C-alpha cells in the first residue's frame, strides 16, 4: 500500500491523476463510440487512458485507506470514503467498454448475429452512461474529499 511519497501523504497526489485521467477517458470513449470511423486510430489510445485511469483510481483508493488511519474520522471524511467506493466500478466499466470498442473495430466479422448499426448504437448508449457515471462519481468524490480536507481550515 502506498502511504507516502517523499514524505508527503500519497493520497492527495495520486487522486489528481484519477481526477484528470477518468474524465479524459470518458470524453475519449464517447468520441470513439459515437464516431465509428475514429475507432481505428483512437480506440487503443482511449483504452490506454482508461487503463491508466483505473490504475489511478485503484491506487487512490488504497492510498486513501492508508491516509484514513492518520486523519480524524469526521462525518465529512466518512461521507467521502463511502462515496469513494463508487468510482472504481465506473472506471472498470469505462475500461471494459473501451476494450470492447477496440475489439469490435478489430474483429467486426466476429459479431454475426447483429448488424453494425445495432452494435454501434448499443455501445454508444452504454458508453455515454458509463462516461457520465464515472465523471460524476469522480467529481463528487473529489468535491467531498476537498470539503473534508479544507472544512476545518476555512471554517465551513
Q: Mind explaining what this structure looks like?
A:
The protein is an all-alpha fold and 156 residues long. It has a single domain, classed as Four Helix Bundle (Hemerythrin (Met), subunit A) (Up-down Bundle). The protein contains 5 helices and 2 strands; from the N terminus they run E-E-H-H-H-H-H. The radius of gyration is 18 Å and the shape is elongated. The model has no long low-confidence stretch (mean pLDDT 86).
Largest sheet: spatial strand order:
1-2
The major beta sheet can be summarized as: 2 strands, antiparallel
CATH topology: Four Helix Bundle (Hemerythrin (Met), subunit A)
**Form type:** elongated
- Strand residue content: under 5%
Summed over residues and divided by their number, the pLDDT gives a mean of: 86
Helix content: over 70%
TL;DR?
With 156 residues, the chain is mainly α. The protein has helices at 10-34, 39-68, 75-84, 87-106, 116-154; strands at residues 4-5, 8-9.
